[in-house]
Structure formats: structure tokens, C-alpha cells
Amino acid sequence: MLFLSCTSSTCCCDLTSRTLFPSITTSPKGKAEDLLLKKSAPGKKSNAQGAAQPVAAKARDKAKQELTVAPPKATLPSTEVVAELREEHPRITDRQHELICTMLQEPGTVMDAAGRIGADPSWCYTTLRKPWVVAYSTELARQTLHGHALTALAVQGQLLHAKSDWLKHEVAKDILDRSGFRVQTEGPRAPSVEVNINLD
Fold it and tell me: Residue 181 — very low, low, confident or very high, per pLDDT cuts 50/70/90?
């Protein structure tokens, strides 16, 4: 037996057919309602949200990698220069040299350096206070800074062509100061005046 629904949207036949056959839509209004239910269903995300999640995850992973990457180590002098320094300081042992190089190359405390080379922290503190170790570490640090001087000068030269006028001015002023063309900020001093008061 077949029941036919009328064309009226308010008829009870339309409501009966929706109740008995929920998979069959009987009017355009029913199709619109079905679409609204699909969009508002919980647990389902739009394509834009789904595409944004992998992008955000990649950005977080990249930030984590940048934080975990160790900074580059400072470049020590050449092997020939180090060999000459070792000859000038014969009391320096290989273990002491390793400690000093670690302190120069990797930032941190004496405790950090001791952990990196697997040494006793008390031995590291005692070693760094010895006069011949102080003299050797000072000379090695000076040679290391001398090796970075050319790189630092190249960076200053690049900054002279920066887009910021303020940055170019500061770099140019720094180079001139280091070259001996220092601008005197203090004016000429007034001659001193001596005042004698005789109370007799």
C-alpha cells in the first residue's frame, strides 16, 4: 500500500514520511536541514582547519630544532700557532690544553667545561688558577681573537651598506674611533683659579 504526501510543507503527510523514511528527503527544506546538521555535527573539521594543522605542527617542529641546535664553536688558531704556544709553555699538559680549548670554544661555566671533558670540577678550578695555565690561556685567547679580527672587520664592512641610516652611522663612528679618529665630546677645560683668603 503506497502513501503519497501532498505538496504542502505543513501537511502531516510530510511529517509522517520523514518519520517513517528518514533517508528520503521530501522537500528542499529537508535538504537544507540535512546540510545544516552535517555542518554542525561534532567531531568533524573543515578542510581549512585540517590543512592548517600540519602547517602549525611544522612551524613548531622548526622552532624546536632551532632551539636545540648548538651554536657554532669559536675557531681556534691554526695547528702551527698552537704548537708554537705549546713550545713556549712546556708545563702545559694535554689535559690542561683540552680544558682551556673547551672554555674558549664553548660558552658556559667551569662546571660545564668539566662535564664536557669528563674531568673533576675541583681539578678544573685548581688548574685554571695556576700561573703557567693563566699565562697560556691568555696567550691562546689573544691568538683566537686575532683570528676573528678579519671576520669582524668584514661584518663591519657589510653593515656600512645597511638600509638603516642609524646603523650605518653607528658602525662608521665605531670604525673611525678604532682607527684613531675619535671625536672629542668634552670641551676645553677652563683654567683653574686659585683664591687665597687672608684672615689676619
Answer: confident
